Batch of 4 targets.
Target 1
Amino acid sequence: MESPVSTGESPPAGRPGSALPLARAAPTERRDAARNRVRVLAAAAELFAREGVEAVDVRDIAHAAGVGIGTIYRRFGDKGSLVAALLGDRERDLQDRLLSGPPPLGPGAPPRERLAAFLHALADLTEENLPMLLASEGSASGARYRIGAYNAWRLHAAMLLEQAAPDLDAAWFADLLLAPLDAARYRHQRRELGVRRERVAANLTEAVDRVVAGAGRAPPSG
């Protein structure tokens, strides 16, 4: 989340040069190190999906990947950093699609449509990586807002909201639209309340429509 990279969109008024901040590209690795990284991440992803993040030990990942445990500690440091690396790869894939993928997720569609498509894609990422997101976002109070791609998602949503509804408090409403995709809240909706995945997507679209349609109305007095 350190290097600002242009989204290919015109910056919203009052924020010249605004851009989607992408994670830095990984430094060039030796071929064997790059191979080991792919094997470790693939093994970790399979074990996390099958056993759950908490149940998997670094030794399990090393054994499944066919590498020494020292290789994992030297490359990643600990299991939390490995989780972050795996999530980072998947978040960068979504960021790439936001920057240069086909519309409506990528450039070329009206901002309201792009915003709805973005929230749908982010819901898919949350659904497919929920155990890792729960471990990452639950690592400390407020971790969701300090690690991972949240600041990029918030900036992208705010930029599209400013384009769709210039009078809106875009940064505030960006947080509002992203709130249902907090990992713990998403799990509560899906697992405990039984909200279907399709209903989550439909509700996100309706939320975008209502926020954009309501922009410009006079705020309540008092």
Target 2
Amino acid sequence: MLTRLFRSDEPVSYEGRFYSLREATLLPRPEREGGPRILVGGGGSKRTPELAARFADVWNGIFMDPNTFRERSAALDVLLSKHGRRPRDVKRTLGLLSFFGRTEDDLERRVQPAREWDEELASLPLEEVLETLRTEWGAIAGPPEIAIEQIRAYEQAGVEELMLEWFPADDVEGAEAFATNVLSRL
């Protein structure tokens, strides 16, 4: 419905299960021809890909490992073709948690929130926590070399843009260390 409102020069009417529109017009008009880019986000394998194939300019997967991302992206390609669209019509992005540190002490501080969220992580040694975060949570987790390796694996899986959730959010010094030790080397 939103895409019709963004793209139509004429008033739009719609009768649906949850809402109705009668002669609706969207003003002010979007500056971008065709309206703003539509991002559909999610990690599901059923509804999200179909919605992205029909409506999205960007698909943002969340919390998945590179192999899962690659599989979901390939499935999206099939659905895009079914809807008369090309794979390049939808940008592929991914949102992940990040637990980065240069030292063992840094890493221990960064993973503390995860230990609090998940009781099973609370008593595990740091390396096992990091491995669980990487494999089961789909997180970027570890020191610079591991983070670089993970990011490159996501790039090879087709991720065009990676969005990292940073913990703690106000840790500017840690973000600068990530930029210096990881991003500058990619």
Target 3
Amino acid sequence: MNEKISLSELQQIIRDSLYLALPDHYWIVAEISEIKENYAGHCYLELVEKQSDETSIRARIKGVIWSNRYRFLKTLFIDTTGEPLREGMKILIRARVEYHEVYGLSLLIHNLDPSFTVGEMAVKKKMVIRRLEEEGVFNMNRELDLNLLPQRIAVISSENAAGYRDFINHIKGNIYRYRFSTKLYEAVMQGSETEKSIISALDRIAENTNLFDAVAIIRGGGSQSDLSWFDNYNIAFHVTQFPLPVITGIGHDKDMSVTDMVAFRALKTPTAVADFFIESVAAAEELLNRLTASISDITRTAIDDNRSILESLGIKLSASAGLIIAGKRYHIERLEDDLATLSANTLDRVGLKLKEMNNRLSILDPVNVLKRGYSITTVKGRVLKKAAEAAVGDIMITRLHEGTIESRVLDDGNKKG
């Protein structure tokens, strides 16, 4: 065929062919990859079908819901599922295939079945729960021990969130005036960035677990629809593996997310999380007071029970001490008598000995010797014992019993002789 046609003519052929081949509306299952609502109220979607690995794309097509129809379907979907259409959500739509010369192939969506999405969400949630249970990690965080005084808290939240401000105001202004140390690890709490952001915050806290007693994941001021972001497997798995107790206050009344289910404790609101920590410290204080009172009672009872025993022992000890003292006193008196007798005997013996020695000394006294007819001769004050000790010319003094005689040596013949 050599006939030439324009691009627009080819496009019309394609459009007509598709309309003739696919004239009906079809119920189609797809996942929302992107969704945008423009200023005119039209909703534009990118729909995909994934491989079994939930990552690779098997098919992709654009879809549109015109504003007049979108207003009705949007309200219907939120009323049924509790949340708006969003990325990552599986939906069942009724659409017709359309082809536009400029915008190409797309699906014109006329209707959708919210109940299908509810079922898909429930199935996905059950699958995450089952996977965590099969891996044996579902209860790991709930089996941790919480510090008796959980006053050092790492908080995962958005700094600008009303729930975070409520938590801080409530825990800092507690009626007991307990002091708490809190550190914010900011994270996105809704939308497609939730998973990555919360896991990053947990990883940063894990680097300094010694600084904290527990982790609080809190969210407030958002819609109920945001809860489904916490049914994420990866967030829940990180919570199960975390070495500190994780307390959640995601802000919901009707349902619990998977993250709540695996956390150490799940509470409804951020202020309820604050109350949990305050009441934990109050309970620890009460326990300490009870233990103190119990120890006091036990001590008092022990003293009362043993007072009679102590008194009896005191009486026995006093009697025994008296006997011992009396016995010692008698022994001391005996020793005193023995000492006195021994001392007297010793003095007598010493006295006799001294008298005897005195008599001997009296006999040897020079005065008494002279009385017996002896004399003492000295030369220059030196007593002469030999004649040779005197020299010619020496003056000798001879002492007698009565008087002295002075003489001079004239001859030393005795010395020669």
Target 4
Amino acid sequence: MAIASIAIVPPTKEERREALKAVYHQARSCTNCPQLAATRTTVVFGNGNADADLMFVGEAPGANEDRQGIPFVGQAGKLLDTLLGEIGLVRGDVFVANVLKCRPPGNRDPHPAEIEACQSYLLRQVELIEPRVVCTLGNFATKLLRGEPTGITRLHGRDEVRTIGPRAVRLYPLFHPAAALYTPANVEVLRADFARIPELLAMDPPPQPEPVEEAVAPIDDPPRALPEPEPASEPEPEREPEPEREPVAVGPPPDAQLGLF
């Protein structure tokens, strides 16, 4: 007998925004990485246009970002803003996030277990924002979203279509602005790679994977009889709920971190 199926209806713009807010509030109280949760000032979820065609993914928050709750607000952020301006864009046109949402102590490199624990937030951001182009800034973002270890030196400036979670995007690896500041020659390389971004945005969006349909019971099957209720038993005691972590009042109001809501 044939099994009926229900096609998945894409969420509306408003539904995607509300879902993104929900993921943000979930991330604010995340304790998946005990050390990061204990040492952070605030969670740096991301900032910008929730419907952006262009998304940037960096490595992790630094000290300034940890204080203000917004990514790329230091010298690397100033360079990012300058390069955006040179191609006719401003920060409000794009969405900016990081692989990690919490600052590693002493700005050390992210640990593999931390990347694994945090990647679901990034994948949901890509899914809900629906960017056409995702620029990975540096090695950590590039290796994570490409799923293989080739470094940024070999890959920068070369776009390719990749499926990230349920969504296909045009992935475009770039040098991290902070790394470029340490090597002045790389600023010009980064500027040249940035100059191609308008061309990538003008391309047709990548075809999306077929959505998975939800299988349901055959519509012509007779309804099944419900089982007889079991005798009532003594209710199990409820566990005492764990206290919620109070967010630190640093930087802008919580939803302001998400930019153009």
